[in-house]
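Task: sequence design from structure.
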């Protein structure tokens, strides 16, 4: 493992430290600062020539700074002659802009892929992309991990009675179906309609039986929590006894925390692909660690073992 080096940007150093703890190696030294003109400066504090380098940096709030910082770090390691550079991006920001669904709009998820590749990444390691086709935006190898096995294990250990898994919209129904299979529970789907480009949705209908059952909603991320609150209310109106929620990415932007605090949802279970700290810490929010999963994937990439075998 002498040639393996793990470094962190500033967006989630706690996760990077936990990953290094799993691997039994120290976190690599870098200096990341910002000049008065808002230009970001990166300096690597140790030799990385001919090393296998992994940079952990989710593209989360502040999103644009996190992205540019990642690109600058990639360029710095490429110019420092690292043998291979893997961008470890647990949360792929701009992933929701993955298609041209109206006139004169960008496909920003593709643009970000091009930027990461051009900056110097030889490989991408990520978690639960918003859309599978984002893998195809890259010309370098992409390993996509999933937090859903960790989420399912936590729910299984809670031993909830009369459980039904609920997809928060039709687009996530396949993921919810897989979660339902893991938990041996039936599936229901909430049909909803998004209102333009605003972070607002109109909940229309619940497809499936939820009356008298404990509902578990499944989504890839919770952003402003507007959709979550609407789904929880709809399920309770349709007779669900209580509602739990789970997702991989706790974006929690804008009024999300206030909405979750005021909502009758019993518990929100998330992975730590994005830091949940400060005011975002609520008693009803449970954060599960991704460190062992990401650490094992890094070990397998470094040693040439199969990453896909982790989920078989």
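Answer:
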């Amino acid at each position: 493992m002498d040639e393996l080096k793990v470094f962190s940007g500033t967006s989630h150093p706690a996760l990077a430290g936990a990953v290094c703890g799993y691997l039994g190696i120290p976190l690599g030294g870098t200096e990341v600062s910002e000049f008065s003109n808002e230009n970001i400066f990166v300096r690597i504090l140790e030799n990385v020539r001919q090393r296998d380098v992994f940079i952990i940096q989710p593209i989360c709030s502040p999103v644009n700074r996190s992205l540019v910082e990642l690109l600058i770090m990639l360029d710095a390691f490429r110019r420092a002659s690292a043998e291979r550079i893997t961008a470890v991006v647990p949360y792929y920001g701009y992933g929701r802009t993955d298609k041209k669904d109206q006139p004169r709009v960008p496909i920003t998820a593709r643009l970000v892929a091009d930027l990461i590749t051009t900056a110097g990444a030889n490989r991408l390691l990520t978690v639960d992309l918003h859309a599978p086709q984002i893998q195809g935006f890259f010309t370098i190898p992409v390993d996509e991990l999933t937090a859903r096995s960790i989420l399912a294990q936590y729910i299984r250990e809670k031993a909830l009675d009369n459980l039904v898994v609920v997809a928060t919209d039709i687009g996530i129904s396949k993921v919810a179906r897989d979660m339902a299979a893991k938990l041996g529970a039936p599936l229901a789907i909430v049909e909803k309609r998004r209102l333009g480009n605003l972070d607002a949705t109109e909940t229309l209908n619940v497809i499936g039986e939820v009356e008298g059952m404990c509902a578990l909603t499944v989504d890839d991320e919770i952003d402003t929590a507007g959709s979550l609150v609407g789904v929880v209310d709809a399920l309770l109106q349709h007779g669900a006894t209580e509602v739990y929620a789970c997702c991989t990415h706790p974006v929690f932007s804008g009024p999300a925390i206030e909405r979750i605090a005021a909502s009758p949802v019993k518990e929100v279970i998330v992975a730590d692909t994005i830091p949940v700290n400060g005011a975002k810490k609520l008693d009803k929010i449970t954060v599960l660690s991704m460190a062992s999963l990401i650490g094992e994937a890094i070990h397998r990439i470094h040693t040439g073992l199969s990453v896909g075998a982790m989920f078989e």
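DSSP finds eight helices and 14 strands in the chain.
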